[in-house]
Amino acid sequence: MLWEGLHHWTIAAQTLQVLDQLLIVLMLVEILHTVRISIRSHTLITEPFLVVGLIASIRRMLVITLEASTLTKEGSWSVERASIFRASMIELALLGLLVLILVFSITLLRRNALQAKEEEI
């Protein structure tokens, strides 16, 4: 995909598509790793699932940004395009809020794990 993008001078669109596919693979690997750890330890660990949610949210933000840039680049602006753009920006804002919540949750989990280890010692 990247080679084709370089050949046709559309490297930005091709790069985002490759990044999108790589993030999907990363999510699948993280889920499989979490399931493997959960099966071995017989406990459910929440942090890897939060990481997968974080990766999925960032992936969706990249896709929305790419769609919005192609939507505004074409030049013809209609009422339908304006409503699609507005909905995309609302979704982007909500995803940004979700990313902040997920990062905060991961941080809290790590702090609690460190405090639990210190109390054991």
How does the SSE layout of this entry go?
Blueprint: H1 2-7, H2 11-41, H3 47-73, H4 79-120
Helix pairs in contact: 2-3, 3-4
Short structural summary:
The protein contains 4 helices and no strands.
How would you characterize this protein structure?
By secondary structure, the chain is mostly helical. It is built from 4 helices and no strands. Helix 2 (11-41) runs antiparallel to helix 3 and helix 3 runs antiparallel to helix 4. 1% of the residues are buried.
Gross morphology is elongated
Please identify the oligomeric state: single chain
Order of helices and strands: HHHH
Helix content: over 70%
Q: First CA to last CA: what distance?
A: 52 Å
Q: Number of helix segments? A: 4
Structural class: mainly alpha
Strand content: under 5%
Annotation, overall tally of beta strands: 0
Instruction: Give average pLDDT, whole number.
Output: 83
Which structural traits does this protein have?
121 residues, mainly alpha, 4 helices, 88% helix, elongated
